[in-house]
Amino acid sequence: MSLELNEIRNAINNGQTAIGIELGSTRIKTVLIGPDNTPLASGSHDWENNYVNNVWTYSLEDIWEGVQNSYQDMVSNVKEQFGVSIQTTGAIGFSGMMHGYMVFDQNDNLLTPFRTWRNNITGQASEELTKLFNYPIPQRWTIAHLYQAILNKEEHVSDISYLTTLAGYIHWKLTGQKVLGIGEASGYFPIDLETKDFNSKMIGQFNQLISPLNLSWQLEDILPNVLVAGTKAGKLTVEGARLLDITGELQSGIPLCPPEGDAGTGMVATNSVSVRTGNVSAGTSVFGMIVLERELSKVYSEIDLVTTPDGKLVAMSHSNNCTSDLDAWIGLFDEAAQALGLNCDKSKLYETFYNMALEGDPDCGGLLSYGYISGEHMTHFEEGRPLFVRSSNSNFNLTNFMRVHLFTALGALKTGFNILFKKESVRVDQILGHGGLFKTKGVGQKIMAAALNVPVAVMETAGEGGAWGIALLGSYMINREENESLVDFLKEKVFSGKMGESITPNPSDVAGFNEFMKRYNQGLAIERAAVDNLK
């Protein structure tokens, strides 16, 4: 650690720290950072979404239990390492899975179970709004969920008083403030890059669209306020402090930064907030983002347009599915090992099997798989069926089996990046990788470099992920100098001298991935048949 033990204790006791909490798909993580912006301690809570009445959801009880447990796990880590408790901190920030749908009535009651980003149930709304706005509105977006509920004539619509996201909901309950960071807001409703606010013209178009329904509200009545990074977004209330820290030690009055989405915190955690920088977050889902030099020439249903936490335009290629099917296969290999009386550490299994993938044939020996646990909008599937298939003359061995599952985890992502690179001539100097795919040193980097044909770097801190990213946004809010940009703050005070190890694409791997993608695209008819015939 760069700070001495007593310095760390004093920093914690004096509130010279910041706390970031991010609610991911399978884990809620809490990170405490010190005055030098490096992580001091962390805690986590594992959770899973539930498929209830054809909707992917998390209950309010699960949300709060997870946040509280993750926070307490971090507190325990601090006490174990430094022998002190946490009573205050300089700033707190919350981040969560972007998009989704949480609606409340005037009494703050949740009107329908939380609908997460994972639900591909808003196809009609997505298509109609994209045409209306001439702007890409993916199915995951909050406004698509709202309009689909209107199209479905759902009873709750007339009672809506507030519409928010997961991060926005938690922030509201802890501070009383109905706000979103601009990055999170950009996956809720289109942003006007000049005003750094929701696009007022499109709000008017939406109101006109629903005017025949004579609802008691117009869209602006139920929207949160949009805030850019560095803005103070309220303080922890007495009730909020008790809700976050059930032991009662944490004091109220702590400032909170604007709640952000996992896309924005991923950009911050990889120092990818200036133009021509990009990052890929690869875990349960995978999304790649490039900060654009200019707007795209046209609308692409496969490409999301979002913003950095300070409001720059970002192109995002997002795939609902990445490593979940691969994780299931590792679990199967673990079962096989245990059946043979071999108790292998799970991390050792991942390291061993991931590294085997690097020994496979460049094109995976003719093997094909799809890790579609859920639907995949990038390739136009409303539902998914995990699938492995091979021809009788494929080179079927364990190295190629592992390689094809790593390749296919990036297949849908590659589809989106092809649009940016080939049709729009988007330029990027380097991709920063973070997330579970990159935990095994070198493997995820090499596969990603082959897929995108771009140098890929991973920083040592990338494992801290979005929880560290939102903690950094909290630190930026309270520690930035007057007129200091987020780009400069990250460059000078966080990432100076920490460029990370970069891997350049291997031409043989690039050619192999391109050959695999031909097979991937041709084989989509097999995946379609599986969806249609395997109920």
From TrEMBL:
Report keywords, A-Z: Kinase, Transferase
Q: Could you say which protein family the record assigns here?
A: Belongs to the FGGY kinase family.
The answer, when asked if Transferase is one of the entry's keywords, is: yes
Q: Which PANTHER family match?
A: SUGAR KINASE, XYLULOSE KINASE
Q: Which domain of life is it from?
A: Bacteria
The molecular function terms in GO held by this entry are:
kinase activity
Question: One of this protein's Pfam families, by short name?
Answer: FGGY_N
Keyword Protease among UniProt keywords: no
Annotated ranges, domain Carbohydrate kinase FGGY C-terminal: 279-477
InterPro entries per the UniProt record, alphabetical = ATPase_NBD (IPR043129), FGGY_C (IPR018485), FGGY_Carb_Kinase (IPR050406), FGGY_N (IPR018484)
Q: What is this protein called?
A: ATPase
Carbohydrate kinase FGGY N-terminal domain ranges (all copies): 18-244
